[in-house]
Design goal:
Layout lengths: L2 H6 L4 E5 H4 E8 L16 E4 L1 H4 L9 E2 L1 H6 L10 E4 L7 E3 L8 E2 L3 E6 L6 H10 L6 E3 L2 E4 L2 H6 L2 E5 L4 H43 L7 E5 H4 E5 L5 H6 L1 E7 L8 E5 L4 E9 L8 E10 L3 E6 L7 H11 L15 H4 L3 E5 L4 H43 L11
Parallel strand pairs: 3-7, 14-17
Antiparallel strand pairs: 1-11, 2-8, 3-4, 5-6, 5-8, 9-10, 12-19, 13-18, 14-15, 16-17, 16-18
Helix pairs in contact: 7-12
Length: 404
């Protein structure tokens, strides 16, 4: 028996449209037109919930309206246990208004769903909608456009266990919520720990890489490294030449890897950087056999008795961004700019001591990055675990429709 079958223990499940479990007038879309515009906003007053702030459980409001205008818009005010859903931008994202949240007005990009709590556990609904996000958005031509009322309250059905026994139904819902909340609580703790470790890493990196003028000699990067560029590789090329060797491009996800091919252009230790686009100036420490695309550059240290690769990588992770040129709306960090970046060489007249200092800085910073990587891997594993149990616990069997 599955966990869900054990939990139900033979109980019936009825699928009800959202409109059947909403409270009276429980579907509220934010005010359109001139009802709530920026000209009405004040410095202090009743907060305005907007998708990029409210939907992720952040209550750092940017906008407020005065109490008189809030009174005229009170039908758009949130209440504890409301579900609010983003209708644009972060479309489909869901948040619950908590008991200690401020009462505020939603803007036009949000909608409120208010439920009959005698029939439904609000967290149960949230977990279910997050499990099947495709249910709450409509699309046109393959692109998500908006959330439509008829698609939400008429089309979406929520599984209600033990519909004839509200008490038992809420008990089963609460148990499902308890299990899933345990996973989300754990992922939240790990996320908070990662954030703290990243702040700690940034602090020590900045401290360790801040030098007095008499401690180091600054050299142009072009004097210390040889610069290369990548080559154009289309999606068709990647598909037709699939293999074991990674290809890195301008993105930051997946460590910049966009695919693997059966040849490689570089072999060894290098530092790459993104030359164009939103991620211009992002640097990576690369090892092994790989290739890069034309929106990447590559650095090879000329004399490794003077400069440590990881030390250079950590330095450039701070310094490179300062040299990005953002003119014409397309950020760039080209080779002629990179070669001018100043690089600190500790104890330049004592190469052995210089490498020792660089190595100690690398050792400390590596310890932080290693811990963050371990926590990130743990977070990924816990999210997958949550998704597995969420899908398992919310995968109620639907009744087979009778055929003629």
């Amino acid at each position: 028996m599955s966990d869900l079958e054990k939990l139900l223990d033979g109980a019936d499940v009825t699928w009800l449209p959202l409109e059947k479990i909403l409270a009276p007038k429980g579907y509220i879309r934010g005010p359109f037109g001139s009802a709530l515009k920026k000209a009405f906003f004040v410095v202090e007053g009743v907060p305005v919930y907007e998708q990029q702030h409210a939907i992720y459980d952040k209550r750092d409001f940017r906008y407020f309206v005065d109490s008189q205008r809030a009174e005229s818009l009170k039908r758009f005010a949130v209440q504890p246990n409301d579900i609010i859903i983003s209708c644009s931008g972060t479309i489909g994202k869901i948040s619950i208004i908590k008991e200690d949240d401020q009462i505020g007005i939603i803007n036009q990009a949000l909608l409120i769903m208010r439920f009959d709590l005698s029939k439904i556990n609000i967290k149960y609904v949230k977990h279910y909608l997050e499990c099947f996000p495709r249910l709450i958005v409509s699309s046109s031509g393959g692109a998500i456009t908006n959330i439509e009322k008829r698609m939400v309250i008429e089309k979406i059905e929520i599984p209600i266990p033990c519909p004839d026994d509200p008490k038992k139904s809420l008990e089963i819902q609460a148990e499902i919520v308890r299990i899933l909340d345990a996973f989300t609580s754990l992922t939240a703790e790990i996320t908070a720990e990662i954030t703290a470790r990243k702040k700690q890493y940034n602090y020590y990196r900045d401290q360790l890489l801040s030098f007095d003028e008499d401690e180091v000699e600054y050299k142009p990067l072009g004097d210390e490294v040889t610069l290369r560029r990548g080559r154009v590789m289309s999606k068709d090329y990647l598909f037709e030449n699939q293999g074991d060797y990674p290809v890195y491009s301008s993105q930051t996800e997946n460590n910049g890897m966009i695919g693997k091919i059966n040849t490689f252009d570089f072999d060894g230790v290098f530092i790459s950087w993104t030359t164009d686009g939103a991620n211009a100036g992002t640097v990576f420490y690369r090892t092994g056999k790989f290739s890069i695309t034309n929106v990447c550059g590559l650095m090879k240290i000329n004399d490794e008795t003077r400069l440590n690769y990881k030390f250079l990588f950590y330095w450039l992770s701070i310094e490179a961004q300062r040299h990005v040129y953002s003119g014409m709306g397309n950020p760039k960090l080209m080779s002629h700019q990179v070669e001018k970046i100043p690089i600190p060489i500790p104890c330049p007249n004592d190469p052995e001591k210089s490498l020792k200092i660089q190595g100690e800085i690398v050792r400390i910073l590596d310890a932080f990055t290693s811990l963050t990587a371990e926590l990130t891997a743990e977070l990924t594993a816990r999210k997958k675990q949550y998704e597995y149990y969420r899908n398992l616990l919310l995968n109620f069997p639907k009744p087979v429709e009778a055929t003629a």
